[in-house]
Amino acid sequence: MARRRSIHVEGYSHQNPIPAASRVGNVIVSSVISAVDPTSGETPESLEAQCEVVFANIRRIVEAAGASTEDIVKVGIFMTDPSQRAAMNRFWVEMFPDEDARPARHTQPEQLPPPRLIAADFIALAPD
């Protein structure tokens, strides 16, 4: 059995041969998670709708790897306009409601392929 396990999620894929995440032991590291809706294959137009899809994709990927959002240690957020964090923060607080138990986060500007306005990645530690 391979030490590293690729994590694939139905309806979620990259254009290149890259898994949604990779797991070695209890460490899970995602690839970049986009705002592509897994049902329609489309990217919503509004930032709010894209945030909703990105956070739903985070949940689906971490769960497919055998963990939960409570196991996420760090989230990287990539936004075309980081000054619009308020739209993203709503979904952040919904996913991580306990202000004393939120993962670390880094939000940075990124030139994403249009129409994408936000993307993310994460590191999680699955339970033993």
Structure, explained:
The chain is an alpha+beta fold. It has one domain: 2-Layer Sandwich (60s Ribosomal Protein L30, Chain: A), CATH 3.30.1330.40. 23% of the residues lie in helices and 27% in strands. It has helices at 47-64, 85-95, and strands at 4-7, 21-24, 27-30, 72-79, 104-109, 118-125. β4, α2 and β5 form a beta-alpha-beta unit. α1 runs parallel beside α2.
Strand order of the largest sheet: 1-2-3-6-4-5
Order of helices and strands: EEEHEHEE
CATH superfamily: RutC-like
Which residues form runs of ≥5 with pLDDT under 50?
A: none
Tell me the Rg in angstroms: 14 Å
- Reported CATH architecture: 2-Layer Sandwich
Proportion in helices:
10-25%
CATH topology: 60s Ribosomal Protein L30, Chain: A
What is the CATH C-level name?
Answer: Alpha Beta
Q: Separation of termini?
A: 18 Å
Report mean pLDDT, rounded to a whole number: 95
Overall shape: it is globular
The overall strand count is: 6
How many domain units?
1
In this structure, how is the largest beta sheet organized?
A: 6 strands, mixed
